[in-house]
Structure formats: C-alpha cells, structure tokens
Amino acid sequence: MHIVLTGASEGIGGAALKLLAQNAKPYNKPLRIVMTASGRKPAPDALISELQNMGAETLYLTGDLGEESTAIALAEKALEFLDNDIDLFVSNAGAGAPAKLFEQSLAEWDRMFDLNVRSTFILAQKFYHALKTAGGSVVAVASMSGMQAHPGQAAYAPAKAALISLVENLAIEWAPDGIRVNAVAPGMIRTPLTEKLYQKEGVLEAREERVPLGRVGKPDDIANIIRFLGSAEAAYITGQTILADGGISATGLLDIPA
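User: That's the sequence. What structure does it adopt?
Assistant: Structure tokens below.
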C-alpha cells in the first residue's frame, strides 16, 4: 500500500497512519508511507519507528504546504518515492487562527486558505495520475467549522467550507477515472496540539457537557473514519463529508429559549 499523509504527528495524522499500516495487507504490495509536517517541531521519531517496525518504508518530509513551491517540491519527492503509484492521499495538514471578521487581516485570510485549501488542491492535482494508476482515493480532513457558521473563526471556517466544496468537485470530475474523494469533518478532538487548552480548569468538563455523546473526541475516532473512507469497504462512497462531532451540530434547536 502506498500512502501520502500530510500533517503527520502524534495526533490525528499519527493515529491514522498506524491504523492504515495495520490494515495494509489486502493491498498485496510493499507498504510505503510518505509523511509530511511543517518542520517547526522535532520529527515524530517514535511514530516513524513504530511504522517501520510494522514493515513500512517511510519518507519524512518537512515544509510549509501553504507555500506553492514547497507543496510542489514535496509532491515530486513523494511521487518519486512511491514510483508514481498512490493508493491513498490523506490531506490532514491545516491550521486555525481565531479572529473576528471585522478584524481579520487579508494576509492571515490568505494564509488560512493557502494552507487549508490550496495545498490540498496542489497535491491532489500533482497526484492525479498516480491515483488513477492505482485506483486510489483521497481523504481530506475538514472541520465541523466548515459545515456551519462558527463566529470567531473568520478565515478558518470559510477555508474549511471551501475544502469541502473542493472535495465534492474533485469527486465528480475524477469519478470516471476510478478515483474516490471524500472528507471527514472532526468536531472537538483532544490531541497533543490542543492539550494545552484542556489543561485549563473546567474546559474539559464544559465541553463534555456540551457534546451529546458525553465526551470530547480522540484521534482514533477520526483515524477510523479515514481508514474506512480509504478502504474497499467505502468503494461506493465519493463526494461525501462525514461529520464526526459527537452530535454537537445536531443540537442547534436546544439553544432556543422556552
């Protein structure tokens, strides 16, 4: 199985890679994984070592995917390592920057779209022939913020909404080529990246109370959906976004007084 995953870390990206590696045998080909990160933090050596112990050949690349030249260069290195054959491209890299609409700078607006949307487009376009060769699929990690209004997320929410639209359009255009394209939209997920927030007194309890299922999500909750969407089990699914938020988005009417 040949995999490309951006945003590799010990959070959602790492959980997805470990699960995908565990389920790679049906592909009957060597397990090769290209994993990318921004490079602002040390390499996830423990994750890489675990994947290699599971039989994976790994290539770890770093760079800001919000930069066009970097995204193109990383794509070319990935294609060379995977012999122009990609079974699954998971676009997980992304970032948020809370702001009110009236104070959102244009520079930050552009950065949110470049990283959360344009990078997926650039990489998917570069991987098109490799995905077509393998009959592969694409899974993008969006957000519940892209599926409804999210005040205080001036650029992030519209960027994730645009990502969902991109997924739908890629899915329709590429369906005749045997390439499936889907997304998962996480709700509140507790990861190493968000752990600092959950260390604040009362935050975890308040969020758990808000979620109908009674808990904040874990990386594995999203990893399982990524694995499913990228597998033969989802062979008849394309152009879809699976919302995984514990039911928060379905509670809107509960906030109506009386």
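The first strand starts at residue 2 and ends at 5.
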